[in-house]
Amino acid sequence: MIITGWVVSIIVVMGIPLALSASGLRRNGFDMAIFLCSLSMTLTYAIYIGLFPSYIIVLPVFIIILMFFSSSGSGLSE
Amino acid sequence: MEIINILDYIRVHMEAGNKKIRRRIVIFAILSVSIMLSGFCLVDSVTAANTTKFYSTFESVSDEPDWTRARSDGDTDHPYMSNGLLTTSRSGIYRSASWLPHNYTYQCSFFISSINSEYNDGLATLLSVYQNTISSGMFEVQVQVSNSAPRIYVSGYASNALTYDHTYIFNMTVSNNRTCTASVWSSTTGLNVICTDSHNPASCVVYPNYQYIFIGSLTMQSGKAKAHNLFFNFVKLDYWSGWDSPPVTGYDNSSWSDIDANLGVSVKLIVFFIPILILAWSFGKPGFLLGSGLMSIIWVFNDASFMWASIMMFASIGVFAYRGGLE
Q: B309 — contact with chain A (CB < 8 Å)?
């Protein structure tokens, strides 16, 4: 049951960024920038509400660093 | 620059006279704002409803305390208190434990946030916790306010003084006859376990893996001042290590599961992102930036109590605005 709970949690946390990035399909295609940002936000929110343990915070930090040092302002979406 | 881009995007489409896009902008703006203001503000009651559904004996946490009555009691300095007692105790802290499986040890915690604390002096030094055993099977935690010697009292045992921004954790064992024992330690001092019952070493054992059972949080607020957040979480311990035998599970657990436990928090997570999804769908990247920014602001002013979470949320949005690439 614990594994099942984790699967549900991961589906929820991954599904939201996927839906958000896919929502731009009509205009921009799959948008990696939206995906990464929303993934960072969902992970943070999931940790905050107790869905994930706190050490998962490493992932949003990594995502933020990754985005910050990306090569160009619009590079992530291309 | 990116904010200007958003405004340019909207302005260009509005000035272009494209009725279809203009109509879509107006409709989704109205929809998004409505959902933001209503949906997210009601999310606590949504999760409370879920919790109530799965744990039918759980007392709803959505009841707001009567702050007006508290103030009319004459304690104008600290509107959260009435006659020295925390007025929210009945709605937020009284818990029924009759649904709890027996012969398990539960890890309970509470957290006192200093974020937005207008009344630091009012509550920080004025808290103690009692845990009582009630013959009817109700588990009860009371928070009592006193003017001196802030202490945690668990089963009558006084431990560390309470301070802000520390998570205090105690174990609670529900046995077959529904008696409760507890131990307390502070997150800042590590596993500084204080045994309150030497006959029950289970209350002194820390289990590394556990599954959260989301019951809800109590937000103490008064008017526009959202001063203190006090969280009570019950955590079911799933692994028993260093123990003679696993607990006997002589209860019917068909009515609840880990999925149920996750559902409440998942609902909260989804509702938070629905307005962002709508705005991203209607406006693309500018909509995503606008929606995530607005929802984060709403969330921070409504619910946030951990500074790190707020920082992470706004850092994500900020780095997206800086590097996300808004065409």
A: yes
